[in-house]
Amino acid sequence: MGDVHSNEFAIEMLHITKRFPGIIANDDITLQLRHGEIHALLGENGAGKSTLMSVLFGMYQPEEGTIKKDGVEVKIHNPNDANALGIGMVHQHFKLVECFSVLDNIILGNEPVGSMGLLKKDVARKKILDLSEKYGLKVDPDALISDITVGMQQRTEILKMLYRDNEILIFDEPTAVLTPQEITELMQIMKNLAAEGKSILFISHKLAEIMAVADRCTVLRKGQYIGTVNTKDTTMEELSAMMVGRKVNFHVEKKPANPGEVLLEVSHMTVASRVHKNNAVRDVSFQVRRGEIVCIAGIDGNGQSELVYGLSGLEPLVSGKILLNGKEITKSSIRKRSVSGMSHIPEDRHKHGLVLDYSLEYNIILQTYFEPEFTNKIGFLRSKNIRDYSERLIQEYDIRSGQGAVTPARSMSGGNQQKAIIARELDKQPDVLIAVQPTRGLDVGAIEFIHKQLIAQRDAGKAVLLISLELDEVMDVPDRILVMYEGEIVGELDPKRTTQEELGLYMAGARRDEVSGK
Do 310 and 203 share a structural domain? Predict the structure, then answer.
């Protein structure tokens, strides 16, 4: 490179420091992205990955450090500056307008206007279809966002970047919400983009994906830079040790189950769908006994969410009944179910798990604030008891946040929000624990911790119903697997005797058994 500017790097972030109240999110971090490479950014929840990318995208201003593009220093005051420099970002929680079409979302803020100020949508449509073809995105420009799958919404976000001719593409945990098949397709799309000369930053904590798709990987831990490695020269074990700071056990240790009496019994349960005319859950029967973990497995969208809404009281049943500890709770309120011994770790932690504008301590007592320990006879909250209780759980479950018990839930990282929900639900000492994708979006260290908690519940004689989309988790954690396909239970498998391939056939509806309890 005889050039004055060292142009090996598309982007260089040099010695970036970003502070928030009570926390240094990025502590002197340097990251260099080469032209045409897929560069992974790996770290635990709360390691500072999203913060660093938000600095690059102009959403935050760093206290120290510089950013260079093609060797020249640049200032990025806001996302419009980032866009002008050719930097685009697909956020973890998509930023799409639900009632707009795909096309309208893509051109939003960048509309092609003709001489009379009229929108020239046909020009935009042609460009979108060409891009979609070139990168294998297969998106219908006229579909409404509210009608398409999460995977397609993500492709819309990718097209938004390509439509703006972005050269540097940031993907923030892009696979957290996808099915295994969509993940494979996304990996291919990313490789196509890099082959066309785009430079990609890929935030993730899924080691297998990083090994499969990234050229290099930079690891952050607790806001600090640990190192950058070539993926072809490293292993998943080595990466996980860099990320967590210790060796991680990828396999769940547990003794054989010792099931007792039935604590949760579901018979002929049918739940309507919110989306289409058919029922989402159709005539489902199963039991969960004391001292066992039963997992409901399946590809997303096969009625698992509605099954949980029915069990937890978020949706009424069309027919069927639910017994908890031998007592019927089919029509009981959510609080009644909670007080009768049911705990629920919901799939959407923002919508059903937390009140984001409340402090951590108030979120921890959301379901018990009315107990005498937390509310006195005249109805005032006992703040000292609440503080002591929440500090005990913060300690016990290693919930990390900038300002401890008074931290607003909104400002915590996803993994720590999840730990707060788990602490609250487990400390109620439930008889039946319904855990819906409890490790979604978490790093290996946090996953290991949560799996241990689920096994501990089982060993303490609780009944655990786990709903999971992660094949490794389905094979590793439960004692029995029930596979759901199109609203029905199509098979019961023993994780010790089945294979991922067999499980996959059931999940795809290619194989089914007559399941007992029908």
Answer: no
